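yo

u said u wanted the structure for the complex thing, so here. seqs first:
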Amino acid sequence: MSAVQAALTGALLGGLYAMMAVGLSVSWGMLRVINLAHFGMILLGSYLSFALATSWQVDPLLTLLVTVPLLAALGAALHWVYERTGLVEFTSLLVSFGVMIIMIQLVHNIWSADFRRLAPELNRYGSGSWFVGELAFPLPTLVAFGAGVVLIGGGWLLLRTTFLGRALRAFAEDRDMAAAYGIDHRRLGMLLAGASGATAAVAGTLWALGNTLVPDAPFEWIGIVFAVVILGGIGQVLGTLAAGVLVGALTSVASVLWESTTSLLVVFLVIIIALLLRPAGLFVRGAAR
Amino acid sequence: MLEVRELDAFHGHAQALWGVDLAVGDAEVVSVIGPNGAGKSTLVCAVAGLLRTVRGRILVDGHDLTTVAAHRVCERGVAIVPEGRRVFGHLTVHENLLLGAHRRGARSGHRATLAEVHELFPRLAERATQPARNLSGGEQQMLAIGRALMARPRMLLLDEPSLGLAPVVLDEVFAAVRAIHAGGVSVLLVEQDIERALAVSGRAYLLAEGRVVTAGPVDQLRDDPQVRRSVLGQ
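structre next:
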């Protein structure tokens, strides 16, 4: 596979990484919670999609009708617990790690450690490619990329143009002042955590379209998704998308040019360099967040 | 409009206010003066709902807001211009102003209010698309006041608006306070620049070490030996 093709495939896959990262980034940046349980929710989303599509014999994308509200509710409920227990950034990391482990174990217990994959006859997006000249656009990652761009772009527009979006950004910057101007931080926090849970559901389904499911998948995601969050700038929605594409392309090119094991090495080297040069994130203008 | 009765306030275990009684009538400008650390900002934060470790009573239009969260205090028409301005630096000037109109009572008429704010501070219209963090101190103060006006307040809390501003800008800020008062808004003004504060106010309270030392019409307070001693160092 040529490096160009690798970059393209990787960049498309990066849309999926961005979809996984955006909820984490937003709840870190705006709610001050580093919610590792987000990975558990993505995992739950992927298995639920698989299970529902399989038992109802429907298009896996239709399962979003169930998984999105379900995981949104779970995200909001978790946030409610985090608020009640008065977590700060560091303690949230520990507690949510525990929650993630519980979720992984739950998936283990329900679906066992066996590999699971959506049956090809249900999954129209599972294989095949579109071609432009010599370049192949693999369908599962293309769907994931498209969904990532649309949803993340939509989220960005929402944050920029609506009363609610402005409220969220103000809330992220100065909670007290936002409250003094009528913004109910409890309600907003729950809403944001719910939206974040919804992105986990979408990311889970998108993952299930193109990948074999294993309960331990979150450990595989954490490194790369954190890289995307940090590079994109914590709480930066569009930055996350750009970073996802960049990280996806980098890992993919590195594994073609050298060995597949070098890809993570390259990613983390890039992160270290990026953090030294632009600590607030690659795509953040100015020094402040 | 605003009535504060026997207010005690705490920062952690440290008590900052002791039994403060204070009232602001409809469309009245009242100053709270006093030296640094007298508890002036604490009083403003308590009224705005940003400090909830308080004892006593805070009434706005007869509604008890002593234990009510800040966002609900805002719904009652209380807006704050905090010490240090605290504009949202990452939002544009325009967005900061729109955010001021977030509360239900202000949202529908926000276009008309925006025009009024722009008339009061033409500079804000010129800099509408700039991120607020790029503004000068004086411009940020105008923005903080403009943001508060966007909430269509009936009670405006101004905390040290003169802090760190050049005299030219100060004139503009205090002219704005007069205009706001003329528009029928009640103002509670906390200020260290006593001459300017008294010049725009009808009554004033002298606060020292968390207690009201003396209070009365400004003409009376100007010559009060306690005021001169406590604040002017004479």
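The beta strands of chain A are 129-132, 135-138. The interface with chain B takes residues 163, 166-167, 169-170, 173-174, 176-185, 288-289 of chain A (CB under 8 Å).
cya
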